[in-house]
Fold this protein.
Amino acid sequence: MIIQPHISIQNLNVHIGENHILKNINLDIPDKKVTSLIGPSGCGKTTLLKTMNRLLDRQNDVRVNGKVLVDGENIYDPKVEVTHIRKKMGLLSQRPFPLPMNIYDNIAYGQRVHGNNSKKELDEIVEKYLRGVNLWDEVKDRLKSPATRLSIGQQQRLCLARGLAIEPEIILGDEPTSALDPISTQAIEELFMQLKDKYTIVLVTHILRQARRVSDYIGFVYMGEIIEFGPTEEVLLNPKEKLTKDYVKGFLV
Amino acid sequence: MKNIRLLKDQFISKIFLVLTLLSISTVVLIALGLFYKSIPILNSTSLYNLLFSSEWKPFKEAFGFYPFIVGTLWVTAIAIIIALPLSMLTAIYLSEYAHIRVRKLVLPLIELLSGIPPVLYGVWGVLVIIPLIQDKIAPHFVEFTTGYSVLAGGIVLAIMIFPLIISIVIEVFDNVPQDLRNASLSLGATQWQTVKKVVLRKSFDGIVAAVVLAISRAFGETIAVLMVCGNLAQVPHSLFDSAYPLPALIANNYGEMMSIPMYDSALMFAALLLFAIIFLFNAVSRIILYRIEKRNN
């Protein structure tokens, strides 16, 4: 069904302390599509997302077993260098976390940490990606003011632009609209629709309507397991598993 | 029923106000008391002479505090120069790099250091630091020193204040949201880049506060410094010269030399001076911090 997986998760198990958070996950994330992970709170979908760019590393007492292949490379191989993997992915978290610097530096940050200090190139990149998230016109006169002064919806678009500015292949969104008002939410969703031609997008959400609007595929996560995975309409409208049926039945009404 | 509840609330808020004012007033009372006691010497000697004269001959009623002020500043500066990098790097390691088990093992030990009475640091300084300076370090630089020096005072003080800086700075680092670090890491920044550009920047205020507190503590530390500084009323010219910081002067002489006219008032002026230095220092750092905050927001 999926010809060319971009991220391939194989026999993944995650323990945090005594808790078995993710149980034997096998999942192929298709290339240049939007894949949504849905499921009740605490089911492990955010943890699953974080395993994809190794953000679990810093948490205490975490054990990860199994493989996560990104472009065929196992990112949990002990020999692997982690920053170039993370560079392949832009992350959008539940709440926007602008870095403690001005708007310009926020966007330029990713380029700078990878050694690009050319003022001219950075200027172009900053403008290009701020335009890309429709923020340029709102902030072009105050690029040097702290990013925390933006509204929360603007901040989230800034964070998206910041992630895109490192030229990733994948965008990971962890309920990226949960702190936003409806208009900002719509803006982010529309951006995802535009971006999916160029990027592989993995979106964690508990809003089923959002999952339906933006995604091509849906994975239903329940109690640390992938219960069902398939094309959006099939999972939402014609689920095969009973657990999925129970979860999405509110959606059908 | 309802009225009693509200009355209670009002009553308690008034009580708390009184208690707060009471605790603030001690500061004012101390300052006033010291000033009152210093009036005789302020009348007999000009303020300029008191602050900038190096002549310290109590029997001739010559009280120049310059050597003591400089001694205090030297010892404090040396202490902070040694302690700040050490404690910042330790705090960064424990907060950002170390495994949780290492942190749980090391942090209580560091906090234990701040619980050790100052006099023990003094003894340790005399037994370990003084001979080390006298025999191992100083011979490379100067011809002769007893080891009782501003450097010894600075080292002992540094060891006394670094637990303080470490525990506050770690607390400050813990308040930086993990998601903010993740934002930086997920862009492919290394751990060190994240520390430098995000964590340190975000915690700048807190770090300044920690350092201010540590310096204030260092200014006032008495017994340990008194034991290793040599206590000579001279302006130190090198790290290996003796000095006589203000707190040591007060502690050594108060109650003993009171038969000498004006000495009592001179020592009270020394105390006032110390009070003023710490007060000014705190005020200036607050103003700087406020300016920075205003610029960033």
